[in-house]
Amino acid sequence: MALVVIGGVAAGLSAAARARRRDAALEIVVLEKGTVISYGACSLPYFVEGRIREAGQLMVYSPEYFRKERRIDVRTGAQVVSISHPRRDVTLASGARVHYDRLVLATGARCDTSGIAGAGQPHVFTLHTVDDAVRLRRFLEEKRPRRAVVIGGGYIGVEAADALRRSGLRVTVLERSANVLRREDARFTEAVRIQLEEHGVELRCGVEVKAIEGGRVADVACDVVVVSAGFKPNVELAAEAGIAVGPTGAIRTDDRMETSLRGIYAAGDCAEVTHLVTGRPAYIPLGTTANKTGRVAGANAAGGRERFPGIVGTSIVGIFGMGFATTGLSVAQARAEGFRPVAARIQAKTRPAWFGGGNTTVELVADGATRRLVGGSVIGEEGAAGRIDVIAAALHSRLRVEDFEQLDLAYSPPFSPAWDPLLIAAQQLMKEL
Amino acid sequence: MALVVIGGVAAGLSAAARARRRDAALEIVVLEKGTVISYGACSLPYFVEGRIREAGQLMVYSPEYFRKERRIDVRTGAQVVSISHPRRDVTLASGARVHYDRLVLATGARCDTSGIAGAGQPHVFTLHTVDDAVRLRRFLEEKRPRRAVVIGGGYIGVEAADALRRSGLRVTVLERSANVLRREDARFTEAVRIQLEEHGVELRCGVEVKAIEGGRVADVACDVVVVSAGFKPNVELAAEAGIAVGPTGAIRTDDRMETSLRGIYAAGDCAEVTHLVTGRPAYIPLGTTANKTGRVAGANAAGGRERFPGIVGTSIVGIFGMGFATTGLSVAQARAEGFRPVAARIQAKTRPAWFGGGNTTVELVADGATRRLVGGSVIGEEGAAGRIDVIAAALHSRLRVEDFEQLDLAYSPPFSPAWDPLLIAAQQLMKEL
Asked: ipTM of the assembly?
């Protein structure tokens, strides 16, 4: 039996490693079109900033590691140009064919700049691969640019803005929609704006960039541009092989991460998953989901019967030391999904004042019809990750607000206030329902 | 309609305030036998240590605040000596009677030192009230003792040891049972021991103290003693009035916090609650539970229909900067409750190494028969509170390990590793099941 995995980053390598653990005899080949594997894409902004010193630190494992320790044949520079499921093989750019019995697609996503004229100029960068990050950092060191524009106010865009500002540049973020961080939430966006502006980064929403001129984007003068927009799943290879693409534009999968062709699995940034709050397909590409779906795809490709139930859309981003975390749906998103959203938003201390507690803002969103929690956000210098994770766990379990309000959370002055901000928000929400 | 609340600390005042919010016309009287109300008992060790400078900071609200802002008649120095439910009144030590239609018992607990000979000596203290803390701090300042013994390795005992050590004393903790922090878990106790000893505090388990000699407890020389053992719910008043006491020795309540006598509620450290993991009555007195049960008792005493489902036994204690958090049952406790416990314990980083992550230890305990999580512990310098709260939320929802393993938790390098330690522990536990 031969397993071929297309893609050697988070999802692909999780799949390969997990398949090996399930089946010691399986022949496993990983085909990666790039030159490096197993890098932490979420770490790239921290390399640009210099917090990660060497590009080598971005790589978690080497092809040699996989070859020796896991008996997995990882081939870099191996670009797959077509899949023939009837023949059960893939064809590489070199013309060589590789046979498979099971196939895992972990083809990832790309930053598609084709809609932006002038994106090919030498001072314009994306921040998607290790190469991108190395080129950007070298440009910063060699050319010493002073003004940057970041196109796109998603996670990477905002983190890039933070990194560029810390490197001493003046930075403007241009976001096409009215809101940042993929969250339709004006107050959340306002909190992000305040944090950015307090640290010298300008945020302009509602600005669609069609062209990058020599020293200018929209009307903002700049000498370096980072494009963090046009994120698209790499589905062409799959689509040409007859694999169904779902309503989100990513590869459709079932809860075994199997695609519409039996024996072909998909995982990571190229794949659609179920959103557990809406019950509908969603495309929210994140490293955590790539790892999890890769594991499940790999286990099942190796004969297992594992299940990936879905995601609730949890994420956090650090902006100049403040955590901005969201999970589930905002009020606007819940309304668009057919819920009758009711929300409460509170400010509270993360610890007693005499223990140096800071402020945190918690919003909870429930469906008025069922009283189920459907989303939330947490902003704070400390505790934001832990608190958003509690809300995420509640979304997984479809908790109602009255149950959430009674959660038995840990309290001790060095760690939290006697009434946790989550519970204060739940009490407020109970009044609104 | 008249509501009388016996007890003016966490549960009693939560009940009174909540009743007022439900019913603006209710006559509300709070009878507190002591001289101060509304103090944070969990903060007392931090007052002893000096982190809280003034005793006044321990009080959250004054009787005047309640009188003026809430129209609640809070009487201090008002000790209730008996309850007559047929007459619907309580009798004070002064002989005066106070009529009630509804009664909330928030009589708290006490530190019963009667089993220890010599506990009345001037260098022996408990740490249960503001007075206790003020007396202990004054003793430390005036007598400058150099060696302390803490009797009891529960939360307050360990926090007192931390506070005394920070004040420059040599400290030995003597615990009667084999384990500390009410957790039957030898490895958890060992981790506490290591942390204590690294900071110069000696821990001896299995030492039952029957007597305190002049300058010595057991064979440990000392010039100050803190007794943090013999914690007992104050149920005598209730029992004499014919109110049922439950199997734990605390006042029995239903999920409305009503006692066996209709119209009389109990909340806080004097009351039993349901343990949601075992489904059985439990007595785990903590400030968070006092606040929650007080709210529910107050709402229902004022004509509401609120429910307190129960607790899962979550707590955290800080020992020299390290968080020790537990929830649900340990392996030994789960076995004693009739489960077939299976556990996994892992060590992981709280953040990527290049982001300064520290170590954390996570243990998850599941029932092998149902695969449900039944408990867990988290030890770490950061993130312990947030992570134990996620496990607590899972216990509330009766999550199975395979569901917990797929939780969509937040990830970003400044906050967490791509595989959260909770998920690594769940993956390990899946292998053990």
From this structure: 0.96
